[in-house]
Amino acid sequence: MESNRSKKAGVDRSHDRSFIEKIAFASGHFVIVLICLWLVFYSGSTKISSLFGADWALSDLTRSYILLACAFLYWARHLITLFYLLDRKVEWSEVLGLLCFMALLEIGLLLVGGGAFRDEAIGLGWRDTLAVVLLLLGSFLNSYSELQRKWWKKDPINKGHCYTKGLFKYSIHMNYFGDTVMFTGWCLFTSCVWTLAVPLIMAGLFIFYHIPGLDSYLAGRYGKEFELYSDRTKKFIPFLY
Fold first, then answer.
1. Most buried in the list 112, 135, 154, 232, measured by CB within 10 Å?
2. CB-based contacts of 239: which residues, under 8 Å, 6+ apart?
3. 80: which residues sit within 8 A by CB, 6+ positions away?
4. What is the pLDDT of residues 55-71, one digit of tens each?
């Protein structure tokens, strides 16, 4: 019964070390980053033969290097989340599902932005500056908000209380908002408008699936404390929603 109560929006929120699952998750993500690394540096000097027999290469190496850096940054943040911030149980289904998503996303964005499907490089401009700002801002909002909460919860006097301070003062789900901002910047940097469907879908999943499930869990755990917090704080986008 306790397991059912702790599982909200497809995530088991009961506390568990899940060390093997976390090691597999981090290792699998690192393999994805290594594939991105191979694509960037191998294609810089040699054509890559596709499964269909056609030859192609990354034509926009400057953009490819920055997209590769995005993948490394995301992996570094993932390590901090898994082995420092995350206390809840990590299930194998979550590991495998998210690794498939990450592979599709990180390799896909690298290929699209790196020029695998076009012949010429696209010069860097103001949109790319905005993209990098959004990526760094989103990374900061997600990771620093989580760190603030972690540090606050380490104090025994706060045990059993709902965290409402720091960046979470402006949004109940500042970490989700941060990830959406980060992926918006990442996708914007590919110079392909269709990739912006990724953060739009992600925002929709947060708003209509993950947030209601997590709010239900928090309401059950913190009761009136969370109710008061929810009444005075925006759910997702600071100052707006």
1. 135
2. 170
3. 143
4. 567 889 999 999 999 99
